[in-house]
Design a protein that fits this description.
single chain, 2 domains, D-Amino Acid Oxidase, Chain A, domain 2, 392 residues
Amino acid sequence: MKGQYDVIIIGSGIIGLSSGYYLSRSGKKVLVLDRSEFGSGSSGACDDMILLQSKKAGVTLELAMESLELYRGLGDELGCDLGFKQMGGMILIENQRDLAVMQEFVEQQQACGLNVDIVGRSEMRRRQPNINDKFIASTYSADDGQVDPLMVMKGFIAAGKELGMEVSYQEGVIGIDRDGRGDWKVTTALGVTVRAENLVIAAGAWSGKIGELLDIDIPVQPKKGQLLITEKIPPVGETNLWTASYVVTKLKPELAEQEEPDPVKKELGLGFSFTRTVDGNYLIGSTREHVGFDKRATFEAVEALSNQVVDIIPLMKHVHIIRHIAGFRPEVKDGRIILGEWPGMEGLFVATGHEGDGIAMAPITGKLVDDYVCRRELPKKVAELNPQRVLV
């Protein structure tokens, strides 16, 4: 690392690397710092979805759709295979209460331009013949896609480095200050000091800890998610799958108490996701746990996730689980990302709080960070994501 840069980015997950790539493409001299190794954070312990159906109509859904369009050409732009594909997705609906909530939700998404519909039992079972008979309907969108997060990160690194971007691992940040010229001065645990006119905090669930170095409160908390990974098997139905119960309780929190009487499942925040990787393994998720930075994978989660997938897709009882992983979603209480320049601190930008949408939102977030730093005109809708709203 050399001493002076245009932009220093703290965090080398998929959001930090996307930001670094787009800034480098704009001619900025960029340094990306990370306290650990490649893929050791949340971006290396998550599912692979560009899931549009879970997004509320409004700025988040609109940006997710823009991000999907960026993904369509991103592999060619970066010059590598990102594992991008579109199997489509279905959110399974179990009862009339959830159906009524999801019908209203889908209508709002359709009005926002999303290609999604509610389909009846016959169409649902045609696409997913192996699911439990208890489901009465589902949503369906052909547009839901996926990528391999590690391949995307490698693509950003390789293309960014060709443009001059530097990435330095094992460089935990221990100090941030302004120097006499007004540049940001960043000191790492290895005793290295680097400077830049602009600083971007893209450290995911750890962004709040970086904020503490600046005496600012970035209100992001870790939400642990545990996933199971199966052996390679033939396709199970045509699409990836989720269940409506988690979406419904997010939309109507007052239903949460009714939704899950089992105390273990409730503590785990159990939700259902079932996605096929490019290699033929399935990712089975997921928990949503508020346990601080405790990253341990637990037997309770293995048992709950295994029982859940067998209940929903009975034939899965014959499939072997080969890995169990855990990572942290960066959660913001109002459910929207924090994106923009920090009020009163010129040249300090924050891009965090994506919760489970980091993979889906990576390209558009990086592009918007580039627009912010380069002082370009921004779409009015992103004002909803400005850090000003969290200063209370």
